[in-house]
Amino acid sequence: MASMIFPKCFMMAVLMMGTVAPVLAEDMVIDDVTLVDGTGHAKQEHMSIGIKDGRFTYIMPTALAPAETGRHIDGKGKYIVPGFIDVHIHLKGPRGGDGARMVGSAPKGETPNAIPNGDLAPQPVYTPAQMAAGRVLGLGALAGFLYSGVTTVYDAGNYADYIIELRAAERGGKILAPHILATGNLITYPGSHGDSMAVRIDSWPQGKPALLKYLETQKPDIVKLTLEEHGWGTRPLIPLMPNDLMQDIILEVNRHGIRTTAHTSSELRAIDAIFAGADSLAHPVVQGPISPEFAKLMGAKKTPMASTLTIGEGYSRLVEHPEFLDQPLYQAAISPAELNELKTKTLPAWRDRGWTWWMKLMTPVAQENIRQIYAAGGVVAIGTDQSSGPAVHREMELLQAAGIPAADIIMMATLNGAKHLGRAAEFGSIETGKCADAVLLNSDPTIDINNAKDIVFVMKGGKLIDEDKLPLPGGGRPLRRAAR
């Protein structure tokens, strides 16, 4: 399974444990660095980390590390963390703009319930020119993730042919991108949330052939289902998937060795999804304050939950504080033309929307809900529901503002993300044998999570990312490590 997911990270013949003497001539050694390993353990100073064949081979005090041939990097005064993980994106593509817009419910005027059981919703047809332009947008967004220190992303619903092609290109080493996991199309009840990008199933076992066809043709890394009737905020009511149907679908998916995640937004539907067997939750509760019992349930069940605060907070942030777009990560990850559109067209449009101000009101509620789940021992992972690497850092800022310690937010952005994706044995922390995804920082992220932006270099699969070769929408950037 590991080599299928990350073919560049080959398993070592013998995994090195603890302080066992490593073989000499590692591909790379990072010396005298402060280690924040992503597991929640206290940071460790003056550590050496060996890397070979895309894996971490040893981790030990520099004073005890053997003399090595190969490339050495001086980490003195710097901090190394695992590569960040975004467990919920919708990559920009042929439709352009923010990929999150690609997975809304059926457009006004459609009659989704008229679609026969098991059929895929009518998919858009793009010309070769539209596909090519969309691919440029997607590659730029992926470059922005890498530049922001994000080494793994999970696309939670998209135009399937587009995202699956990019997933194959990444795994084949043909594009500069984070590791890509993808759902492709969603699985949804007709008329429910996201059904314009979904295989619609309304009964069982009648819908089983369509599900099996989807699993075979798209080979999703994780299957996303939606359990959402809306009727909150400014959203009208829509049909809801029955719990017994969701349970049947999840059981069949799990029988194929594939995890599931469920879109929910209320405590009630989150509980329904958990007890239908969902392996993770794609969003926090945003409709209102959670009960103490729900926080305890999340602590007991350890069902990972994505944070996705920025997707709602981003509306009022743009309207009230557009200056955030002047930050270096945003300037690199967003093209000048898009920056101008955001400030001149999107901002006034969002100012006039009721949804903007409803989400501003509810974001602090969602922040407190997440804090309570964290305090109860629940597993929170960083997800943005966007197509933006810098949004990962904003997500972490919002969690810190909610009262969660920065050191624990690092774990949410790394190992908890791997748990959410069912890949914790493979990546998400700096431990021997795991895939060597890491970010070297010039400042301590356990003191202030904003220091996670102070990036020296990004490493994916044991190789340093050449940032000057990234197709960043904001234009070429020099190597940050060269300036240190």
UniProtKB/TrEMBL annotation:
Which one Pfam family would you cite for this protein? Amidohydro_1
Q: Which UniProt keywords apply?
A: Hydrolase, Signal
Q: Which domain of life is it from?
A: Bacteria
Q: Where is the signal peptide?
A: 1-25
InterPro entries given in the database record: Amidohydro-rel (IPR006680), Metal-dep_hydrolase_composite (IPR011059), Metal_Hydrolase (IPR032466), Metallo-dep_Hydrolase (IPR051781)
Question: Ranges for the Amidohydrolase-related domain?
Answer: 79-464
Q: Which GO terms describe its molecular function?
A: hydrolase activity, acting on carbon-nitrogen (but not peptide) bonds
Concerning PANTHER family, the annotation shows: ALPHA-D-RIBOSE 1-METHYLPHOSPHONATE 5-TRIPHOSPHATE DIPHOSPHATASE
Task: Please identify the protein, giving its name as recorded.
Answer: Imidazolonepropionase-like amidohydrolase
Q: What is the lineage of its organism?
A: Bacteria, Pseudomonadati, Pseudomonadota, Alphaproteobacteria, Sphingomonadales
